[in-house]
Input
Amino acid sequence: MSENARYRLVLAVLAALVAVLFAMSLTVGPAAIGFADSIAALFSNDRGAIALIMREIRLPRAILGLMIGATLGLSGAVLQGYLRNPLAEPGLLGISASASLGAVLAIYTGLSAAFPLGLPLAALAGAVLAVFIVQAMAGIRGGTLTIILAGVAVSSFAGAMTSLALNLSPNPFAALEIVFWMLGALTDRSMTHVWLSAPFMLVGWVMLASLGRPLDTLTLGADAAQSMGIGMRRVQFLAVFGTAACVGAATAVAGAIGFVGLVVPHILRPLVGSLPSRLLPASALGGAAVLLAADILVRLIAPSKDLKLGVLTAIVGAPFFLWLVWKTRRAML
Amino acid sequence: MTLLKLDDLSAFLGGRRVVDQVSLAVGEGECVGLIGPNGAGKSSLLRAALGLVAAAGTVEIAGRDASSWSPRQRAQHVAYLPQDHEIAWPVSVERLVALGRAPHRGRFAGLGPRDRTAIEAAMRRMEVDQFRTQPATRLSGGEKARVLIARALAQEAPLLLADEPTGGLDPAHQITLMRLFRALASEGKAVVASLHDLGLAARWCTRLVLIDKGRIVADGPPDTVLNEEALRAVYGVTAFRGEAEGGMVLQPLDIIDTDRQ
Output
């Protein structure tokens, strides 16, 4: 099979997988509603309990799973391509940690209780602040190493401030809420969360998706890419701000969900001939599929325990990543 | 026509002046060898000409001030082959060579027939077409170097700036490459290549530019630039100079021990 045909097949299979998982996500939940009933209720005009559950609980959850998964997969693939480092992941720029800090501060100060959108908005503010700090540190001619280091510094600081908030938390319930929020989940999100985060994610996707060709030329290093007509300032701007917009919005509504953005590009890279521009759409679909699957699993494994999505992705993702490293090491020897 | 014109060009690395007010013009049909000892500023000169390092002075490409070109327009006029053979992902050889077509393609356009012709020609010229489906990262050092040269050729720019292009190549491929540079020059293009192998430079370049401590110390045909005095003063070596089969032969012999003189 030619490289092109295989690429199209990979995209088609992934798209079908996402469609199936999206439908499954709509029909799995504590309220045992049949598949046909639930889909029919989604498109009907009645205002019964089933329609309410479908539209107000399951639909936003499935949409957020799809969008956040795609965000993590896409931004992971972009950052690995831009930094030419297979260990890069969306959290690397410090955006997840800062968005988490924003959310934690909202819980800590009671803003989230006083005002329903207080938490996601504070998280977005945290993400925006982080990206400006990273961009200012890296500067115009800043290399990729400066960006990584600035991201590590911002992440550490945000982590420290989060610990401080936990440390000084006046009541144990707030501390518990903070900890649970940070684990990352899609439970009890409403359409308001979708409307709040969707515009940021869409803008971020457009910015990141435009980087396909430039990332291809970056395979040969920054100098070669520039000599082939790539403006590195523009690439840096789009990569940093695009990641900030979509990952910031994703973290704002779902907390930090790890390993999807790191592992998904790894798995798919060999299937698309390693070309970054081909990895972007594949990784976006793959990320959506993985997150939808994980969110279905948390509902199936422990329906009564409220198992957190971020915990599951980490438990499954970390050993899997270890195996990947083992396999790559053997391939390199 | 002048393809590259440098006027009082200085380049800086970490605040240190590594290229010092260099002026140089390269026209169609020239195959220029940029020679000089380690750290003389050869790579920095090439990178400054492309706007890749902080620089002062003016660079004209194809008769126009380079700062007025967009990166894409500039890429249609100058191709550049960096010294390090960086290939980040295991992309197939064919796809890697195709990257050279980037400045000629529309943002979402696929490869057109002209692109394919250029890619095939470049792969054939560098004899890498037999590896076309293999991941470029799995090739040997010399094969990788040839694939990267093919990438630069596929760009089909009138001017090629190559940094140490013969490094890592076996003698046959070194000569093939120098012949190719001469062929490009006779097609009306121009090549500026930094070279460490003085024998290759003497035999195949139409013109040599000798650089020492960031300044041009000699510029002209190989037999005048590579004289005994220049080799002693700049490189600190003695050399055998001769002629064989209609071309110059130069073989460095020994270092000059300055203490004994």
Summary: The domain at 3-332 of chain A is CATH 1.10.3470.10 (ABC transporter involved in vitamin B12 uptake, BtuC).
